[in-house]
Each structure stands twice: as structure tokens, then as C-alpha cells.
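Human: I hope this is not a bother. Would you mind checking the protein record under this note? Thank you for your patience.
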Amino acid sequence: MPREIDEAWIDEAIDRYRRLDVLRGEFEKAVAGHVVSVHSPDDSIEVLVTAAGEITDVRIRGSLQHRSAAELAREVQAVVTTATEAARWARQKLHDEVFGAFRSLGER
């Protein structure tokens, strides 16, 4: 017995795939272009990071003359960890904005 093909469902699936492909492109562009600024706990280091996780700039404020290498290393580690978390947060927010209204095929 031949299976019945739901042409409307197939057409909708193709349209949804195309729309999803467009949304994915918008998301990738937004993730690459969205920059978050984070600071070390003592505010001496600022890191700019994209939602994709790429560190685009590191800025050191003030003098480093009175700091030990260990102190500076701790501040750098802390701000890089914060930058990673900020990128993840920004990526999730952008994902929710871009794909939030996108419903699954089962929700039609």
C-alpha cells in the first residue's frame, strides 16, 4: 500500500528550512558583531569580547609598577573568565532574540 504524502507539510518544512537558514545567518552576524566589555575585579583591566568569544581588545588602566606578576596574573585570569561568561550570556540573549519566535513543526 503506497504511503500518502502530505504535500502541504513538505512545502511548509522547506519554507521553514529556508527561514531557519536566514535566521542562522543573522545570528552568526549578530554574534560576531556584538561586543561586551568586562572588567577585572580591581577595575585595572578591561577586556572587550564578542558574543562569539573572540577577545578583540585588552586595556590596562593605571600603572603596573606597584604590582607583582602574581597579582597581575590573578586579575588577568579573573577578567578572561568573566569575558568567557559574558560572551556565553550575550550569545544566549542573541539566540533568544533571533530564534525565540521560531516554532517547531509539531507546533503548527
